[in-house]
Each structure stands twice: as C-alpha cells, then as structure tokens.
C-alpha cells in the first residue's frame, strides 16, 4: 500500500505508514535470495521494494522519513541481520542518516551524521553503504568515506577524506583493507585510511580507463572485480568484469546509467540504474532478468542471503592495471581476521 499525504509532517507520514507495517503489510520481509531496492528521488516515497530472485515485485517496506523531501539512498544487510538504509536530507542541508530495520519493518537504530564531509546532495550516486568484519560500516559521501561503529549511533567520523571527487562505493577485503571507488580511481586503503594502491586502468594498453565510476563489487572466490562507470565516448555506460590478479578485462556490457552493484553468494550480479529497471546478470554478464518496476529510479540495490566466503585476495601489487601505483609510506597491512 502506498499512501500520498499532503500537508503533513514527516513524523505524521511515518505514523500512518508504520501502522500498515503493524497491521501485517510487512511480515518477515527478509527472505534468502530476494532483492531489495530503494526509490531515489527527492519528495518521493521513502520505501524499500522487495523482488523475488527472478525479478517479480513482491511487496514493500516503508522507512521512517528523516524530513519531508528526504532521499533514500544505499542499502545493505549488516552482519547483525538488520537492513541498513541511508537517507539524505533535502536541499543544502549537509547531513544524512543511516537507519537499521528488522525483518518486521521495525526501526532499530538511527545513525545521524552532520560532521565534515557529510553532504550527499552533490551527486545522486553518493550514499552507498558497506560493512567490514570488525564492527564498522561505511557510507560514501561527497566529502569522502564516513565510518560508523555498529551499535554506537553517534560514532560517525570522516575516515577517508577526498578532494574534488567524493566516494561512490566501498567494499571490504578479508585482509582488513577496503576498496574505495572515486570518480576515476579505485583505491585500496588500509585500516588507517592510507592509500596502498591506486587503480585507474584495466585491460592493458588497449583497455579502458576508469571514468565516472559508480559501483564496485568483488567476488573473492573467482578473483573478479566488477565495476560500473558512466564512461566516455566509445565506452559509455559500462559494466566491467576484471581479473583481480592480472587486471585483464574479462568482459563488458552496456547498460544505461548502470550504478549500484550487489553480488549474491551464487555469483549473480544485481545492477541498479538511474534511468532503467534494475537487471540481474550471471557471472559472465549475460542477462538473466529485469526487475519489474515503474519509472521511478531504483539505482541502489542489495540481496538478502548468506555471504560468500571471502578468502585473502591476491596482492593488488600483482595487478596489471598498468598505471599509478601509489604506495604511501610504510604503513603495515592489517592481517586477515
């Protein structure tokens, strides 16, 4: 049930929609294999839509609006089994909030952040969220990467500041490091935020430069990095499959305004878009299905299910990305946990 109410506060709107949750509209919302997506538009509905693994729409879960005109952004399941959803305040307000929900749609915690680097309005793709294995989660913003400690709602801090780009996506590695997607680079950074590697290019001399990256995923079992970018003339709107050890470009697929990525334990890749219905691909980027959705933007996606095992990746120092290897200082890497 979707309600449109005029002339009410965000709190009043939530009280009406939340009543639907208690009445049973949402019950056991988390099902292994199901796909979840937010609608991303200012003054749009603050909802998480649920789809079956074959793309059929099932139902929705309302999320508590932080303000009228708030924009829902990234979402991901945490190791605690809760669904975490990012919301951006509307207009020039430089702040955002991360909310966690249980499978009955009941709000658990609210992590607010209005410190340095907190603005998400600089790009509609900001606001993706990722978890590490040491009790932290991260949100990409216009000012960099913001870190939170799970269970500590006031713990937000600018962990990795950036200048002129912002962070579009983040993925944790088993060695304790993070892969961080900026506009034209994928950095590997350690637990102190030190840049260990700067990846700008894939596929050797005839390959592709990274240009306007939007999302990344890492398949540790296959040693594959997936990435989306808006790209450039001749290589627009690319989904890329990359050999993580060699930097070889294993495949590409064009998909208009491809954005967020979510990789399931069985190797299926869900791809959100700013202008298209999300799609599901197999490990070789072949189309499996499209999600049944309206014209509303569903660029942030995730899937519920057991996480794939994450072995220690090959050192990125072996990558054949062919450019700009930035090794700053002698910062020691953290050992795998």
Molecular structure report:
- With 337 residues, this protein is mainly beta.
- Helices cover 4% and strands 42% of the residues.
- It is built from one helix and 26 strands.
- A four-stranded antiparallel beta sheet has the order 3-2-1-26. The chain has a four-stranded antiparallel beta sheet with strand order 4-5-6-7, with no helix packed on it.
- The longest helix is centred in the N-terminal third of the chain and has 13 residues, at 10-22.
- The model is unreliable at 1-25 and 307-337 (pLDDT under 50).
Short summary of the structure?
The protein has one helix and 26 strands. It has 337 residues and is mostly beta strands. Strands 3-2-1-26 form a four-stranded antiparallel β-sheet. It has a four-stranded antiparallel β-sheet with strand order 4-5-6-7, with no helix packed on it. A four-stranded antiparallel β-sheet has the order 8-9-10-11, with no helix packed on it.
């Amino acid at each position: 049930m979707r309600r449109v109410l005029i002339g009410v506060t965000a709190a009043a709107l939530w009280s009406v929609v939340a009543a639907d949750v208690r009445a049973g509209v949402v019950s056991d919302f988390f099902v292994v294999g199901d796909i979840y997506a937010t609608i991303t538009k200012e003054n749009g509905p603050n909802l998480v839509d649920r789809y079956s693994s074959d793309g059929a729409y099932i139902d929705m879960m309302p999320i508590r609006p932080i303000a009228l005109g708030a924009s829902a952004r990234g979402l991901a399941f945490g190791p605690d089994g809760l669904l975490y959803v990012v919301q951006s305040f509307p207009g020039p307000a430089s702040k955002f909030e991360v909310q966690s929900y249980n499978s009955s749609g009941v709000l658990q915690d609210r992590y607010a952040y209005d410190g340095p680097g907190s603005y998400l309005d600089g790009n509609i793709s900001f606001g993706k969220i990722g978890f590490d294995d040491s009790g932290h989660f991260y949100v990409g913003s216009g000012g960099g990467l913001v870190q939170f400690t799970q269970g500590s709602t006031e713990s937000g801090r600018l962990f990795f500041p950036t200048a002129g780009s912002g962070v579009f996506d983040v993925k944790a590695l088993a060695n304790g490091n993070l892969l961080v997607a900026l506009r034209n680079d994928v950095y590997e950074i350690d637990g102190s935020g030190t840049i260990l590697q700067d990846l700008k290019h894939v596929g050797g001399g005839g390959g592709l430069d990274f240009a306007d990256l939007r999302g990344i995923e890492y398949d540790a079992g296959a040693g594959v990095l997936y990435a989306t970018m808006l790209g450039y003339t001749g290589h627009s709107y690319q989904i890329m499959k990359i050999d993580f050890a060699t930097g070889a470009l294993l495949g590409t697929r064009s998909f208009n305004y491809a954005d967020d990525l979510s990789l399931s334990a069985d190797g299926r890749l869900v791809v959100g878009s700013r202008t298209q219905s999300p799609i599901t691909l197999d490990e070789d980027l072949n189309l499996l299905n499209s999600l049944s959705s309206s014209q509303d933007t569903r660029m942030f996606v995730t899937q519920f299910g057991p996480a794939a095992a994450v072995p220690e990746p090959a050192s990125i120092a072996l990558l054949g990305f062919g450019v700009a290897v930035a090794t700053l200082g002698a910062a020691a890497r953290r050992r795998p946990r």
